[in-house]
Amino acid sequence: MRSGARLALAVITLAALVTACGVPQDSGAPTRTAADCGPYARYGEHPGTEVTVYAENRDREADLFEETWADFADCTGIDVRYEGDGEFEAQIQLRVDGGSAPDVAFFPQPGLLERFARAGKLKPASAGVVALAEQGWSDDWNSYATVDGTLYGTPLVANVKSFVWYSPKFFRDRGLEVPRTWSELMAVTEKVAASGVKPWCAGIESAQATGWPVTDWIEDVLLRQQGTGVYDRWVAHEIPFNDPRVIKAMDTVGSVLKNDRYANGGFGPARSMASISFQEAGTPILTGDCAMHRQASFYADLWPKGTEIGPDKDVFAFLLPGADPATRPVLGGGVFTAAFADRPEVRAFQEYLASADFATARMKKGSFVSANKGVDPEDAATPVDRLSIRLLQDPNTELRFDGSDLMPASVGAGTFWKGAVDWIGGASTRQVADSVERSWPSR
Amino acid sequence: MSFDVVAQQPKLLYLLQGVAAFAAVVSLILLALHRGPVRRRAAALLLLAPALLLLTAGLVLPGLRTVMLSFTGGGGDAWAGFANYVWVVTDPRALVALRNTLVWVVLVPLTATSVGLLYAAAVARSRFRTLALSLVLAPMAISFVGAGVVWKFVYAFRPAEAGQIGLLNQLVVTFGGEPRQWLVDSPWNVLFLVVAMVWAQAGFAAVLLAGAIRAVPGELTEAARLDGASPRQIFRRIILPSIRPTLLVVLLAQAIGTFKAFDIVKTMTGGQFDTGVIAHEMYDQAFRYGETGRGAALAVLLFVLVTPFVAHQVRAQRRAG
């Protein structure tokens, strides 16, 4: 017994020693004497400092971000601590109220950014960020991160939402042309439906956010039917949510999405949308069980591994058409940086994120779209990204931001999403539009 | 991530400071009590002081602040009067949450306790009692979030032509039915959420009630049997009255827990499809929509609703003790 105990003790000691040796002694940034620190010289040196970043991106997306700024961190000596949280939108409020705000946050909705800016929690952008913003983005884009004339940050990611994903082979086999007008789109839809395949894939399940793909559809169609003026006034609640023009746009969308002959391809009747996640909803395109899936440029990342994107590959995308092929407004979305702290290293990091260098470096690592005028579309990872960047850089593009992201959160992320789900489930357009209108906060 | 002692040093230091401060306070109190003659009441007060202080800082003040917030607007600044309470009783979404909470509070304790009672009665005197009880207790070891995820899979929907991934729809399909969207179709979806909660809670009732049933004196049931009572009569006339206090405590505890139900709703439906409950609606309003006032009003309402149950629980325990 005693010798056994002694043996056990020896083993434990040895194990402890071995593991102690195995623990990395240096947890800080590895010292790297890289020759490629030249581009980072302008951000200065901040050895021994730390910047905390809080955002909703996790897993692969988070890794890609961290890989992208690894060189920046090494060269400036800033330890960038990234934290991704699927509950970002709710937790950021708690973090800030609780006095543990991150140094930098990536806001997926301008409305949320505005809330913190108005509460005086955010720090105005530094002169360096302002200069980069003016140089890199159109006034429209910068306006989304501007509150009462003060700029707080820059767009980090941009999405073009008005895409319709399809299979070029499916179209070729049936002699279908990519539609250039709304009526051509409906003709294609009817033709596919007549052949016994449901033309549209449209799952809208997205946990708490279930319904948002429908609101995107409505926004896109309103934009096409009524133009940017009416759209802007609707988003700002200068015309009521249930304005007849909005009702008309909803009914147009309903003629597609609430039609059991047209949706939901590969998954059953239109009502099945609420149970099918938007991520997997588009995959029946690959098996020919549906023809089209209206979804943003970021859907490029959601295809199963090995799916190739291109005009003659497995899948490709065209812009959702309007009445007139000459003018096609584009619905977009984006993520914005903003800082809760005003230290030199935080400013340096925010400036780096605002640079075209960052966007370019990130694009080279995989699907990513930036609205920065300084990026070269040729650097994009997929043809759809390339197309998106060209659209965003084209001064003639009439871009409008996702309306539900600009409305008060209790509407844009609340009653509008819920209303969209009820609507797909069978509620009438009038009923849903009226209830969203009633829910608008009076303040 | 590796645990770096050096990086954690400040935290360890805080911990040490905390422990030292605690020790200091305790010794100060003891010292004060030791010095000279102290009246009993004063001594009790002195001993209670730290706990009272923490209770005030951690419970009473936040509670008062919540009440104040419930009379303010979204940003927590502008005075809103009773607008938030009016909203609670008029807004369709809030009313759905109230209705669902009522359904939950009626159904969950009754069902979970009945299931637990039947199970406990069945296994209380069995040879495999321990095994059987640990089996039914197993769901309690899983968090509500885990239970929600598990049941979300059970209810998963796929169209008839595709392969089912949900247990329930697979059963339906096997017997020739059409798969249904269990979690989407209101108002029945509320019942399917309740099932998940009952599954997670029944074990708690079963274990407590099995203990109570075993505590019923054997002579009593023996005597009844000799008098010719059937097992059903023994259960109804002897066991049930004997375990009444435990039954009540279990019911109340379940009811209080059900009022706070949040995790299951959040993981299974996110409050969509008219499945919201007060606790979940409170979270959505306060944190996702920035409507702090409405969130606070719901919190106050929840507090008011749960108070009689807690009061009754406390009284029941005092009577038992």
Helicity range of chain B = over 70%
Mean pLDDT of chain B: 89
What characteristic shape of chain A results from the CA principal axes?
globular
Query: H/E series of chain B, N to C?
Result: HHHHHHHHHHHHHH
Beta strands of chain B, count = 0
Percent of residues of chain A in helical segments? 40-55%
Major β-sheet annotation of chain B? none
- Give the termini distance of chain A in whole angstroms: 78 Å
State which percent range the strand residues of chain A make up.
5-15%
Specify the number of helices of chain A: 19
Keywords (chain A): Signal, Transport
Pfam families (chain A): SBP_bac_1
Family (chain A): Belongs to the bacterial solute-binding protein 1 family.
Protein name (chain A): Extracellular solute-binding protein
What can you tell me about this protein's structure?
The complex is a heterodimer of chains A (443) and B (321). Chain A is an alpha/beta fold and 443 residues long. Helix content of chain A is 45%, strand content 13%. In chain A, strands 1, 2, 3, 6, 11 and 12 form a six-stranded mixed β-sheet that branches. In chain A, helix 6 (127-136) packs parallel to helix 14, helix 10 (212-235) runs antiparallel to helix 11 and helix 18 (409-424) runs antiparallel to helix 19. By secondary structure, chain B is mostly helical. Chain B is built from 14 helices and no strands. In chain B, helix 6 (144-154) packs across helix 8 and helix 9 (218-226) packs antiparallel against helix 10 (231-242). Chain A binds chain B through residues 23-24, 27, 89-91, 93-94, 115, 118-119, 207-211, 266-268, 271-272, 274-276, 408-410, 413-415, 417-418, 421, 425, 435, 439, 441, 443, and chain B through 2, 4, 6-7, 73-75, 78, 91-93, 156-160, 162, 181, 183-184, 266, 270-273, 283-285, 287-291.
